Each structure stands twice: as structure tokens, then as C-alpha cells.
Amino acid sequence: MKLVVVSAGLSSPSSTRLLADRLAAATTERVDAEVEVLELRDYATEIAQHFVTGFPGGRLAAALDAVAGADGVIAVTPVFSASYSGLFKSFFDLIDKDALTGKPVLVGATGGTARHSLVTEHAMRPLFTYLRAVVLPTAVYAASEDWGGEGLAGRIARAGGELARLVALPVAGGAAPRSLHGAVTSVEPGDGFEVVPFEERLAALRAT
């Protein structure tokens, strides 16, 4: 099972990478997965060149393929002007339009103040919904004052648990786990996901 972590932090070390690492750790505590971390600042030049030439460099092409081939994605960005960073958006602009379809994505963001805590809902969730990903119910925002607090640790644990349950869902026929291709119909604290195959969901809607 493959988990790809996309971190758009610009400094080294960065709180964005720290949040990304903690989300990955919370996930792998509950499910056995290989983790690959993509630090977008290392790809900034190739991303800009791709927009000009239309072709990705070798390292960027491998990063895009890694996201497309992942069973689950953790995407974390710093907040700039009350939204995700330009580097973060530029990378996901280059993702193939079908690469994230049905793929579980856990979103997170970091900022200097709690005033931007809704960035995960008004900016990041719509972005990944547009890309037809399955965005997890719990998004994690970490302001400067949140680090070391129990509230942040609890949200990280809950989000990691949600992603672990989702990537571990078996597909029909007992094949290896992969990303969700159904509908998440309910999530309760402490519960797993109830997944309804599309055909059953469609039949139920037609019967009403």
C-alpha cells in the first residue's frame, strides 16, 4: 500500500512539513503503508518550466506519477493570502484530470493565526472535490499557538484514523486494498466508514 505526502512548505524545517509528517505517522500507526514525501519546494523550478514548455522534467514526472499511483494522499500547505500557496496550487494544476478520481485525500494547512482555520474548507476541499477525490471529513489546520496542544494532537489522530480506514477498505472479490470507489454515507466518532457501492446507491435512489 502506498501513501504519498505532498508538503508545500518553503522553509527547512517548516511547520507544514511537521504537520505532514505527523499526519503520516498517525495513519501508518493504524495501517501498514509505504510513505513517500514530496517537498514541493524541491520541484519549484521544474513546475514553472512545465507551465512554459508543456513537458515535465524527469523528477517532476516521477512526482506526478507517484501521486497518481498512490492509494492515499496527504496534502498540506501553508496559508498565503487566506488560501493555499501558489506552489501548492501549481503542482495540483499539473496532475492529470483523472489521477485523483476516487482517491482518498487528507488535507491540512498551517498558518500564523487561527483566523485562517477555514482555509481547508473554503479553498482546499473544493479543489480536491473538483478533482473528484474523496476528501476526508476531518481536515487539520495548525496555527502557531496550536503546536503542543491536546486539541491538535486529537485532530491529527482522528484524521489519520479516517485515512487508514479508507485506504484499507477491500475491493470486491477480495483483491488488495485500494482507493474508494463507492459513496461515504456516514461517519460517526469512533466508527468506520459505511461504503455503499454505486450500483446499490443508484438502485435505492431510483426506488424512492
- Average residue pLDDT: 86
The percentage of residues in β strands lies in 15-25%
The parts where pLDDT drops under 50 for at least 5 residues are 171-189
Largest sheet entry: 7 strands, mixed
Written description of the protein model:
The protein has 208 residues and is α/β, with parallel strands linked by helices. It has seven helices and nine strands; from the N terminus they run βαβααββαβαββαββα. Strands 1, 2, 3, 4, 5, 6 and 7 form a seven-stranded mixed β-sheet that branches. Strand 1 (2-7), helix 1 and strand 2 (34-39) form a beta-alpha-beta unit. The termini are far apart. The model is unreliable at 171-189 (pLDDT under 50).
Short description:
This protein is of the alpha/beta class. It has helices spanning 15-28, 44-53, 58-69, 86-93, 119-130, 150-167, 198-207, and strands at residues 2-7, 34-39, 72-80, 83-84, 104-111, 134-135, 140-143, 183-184, 195-196. Strands 1, 2, 3, 4, 5, 6 and 7 form a seven-stranded mixed sheet that branches. Strands 8-9 form a two-stranded antiparallel sheet.
Walk me through the topology.
Elements: E1 2-7, H1 15-28, E2 34-39, H2 44-53, H3 58-69, E3 72-80, E4 83-84, H4 86-93, E5 104-111, H5 119-130, E6 134-135, E7 140-143, H6 150-167, E8 183-184, E9 195-196, H7 198-207
Parallel strand pairs: 1-2, 1-3, 3-5, 5-6, 5-7
Antiparallel strand pairs: 3-4, 8-9
Helix pairs in contact: 1-6
Structural features:
9 strands, 208 residues, seven-stranded mixed beta sheet, 7 helices, two-stranded antiparallel ribbon
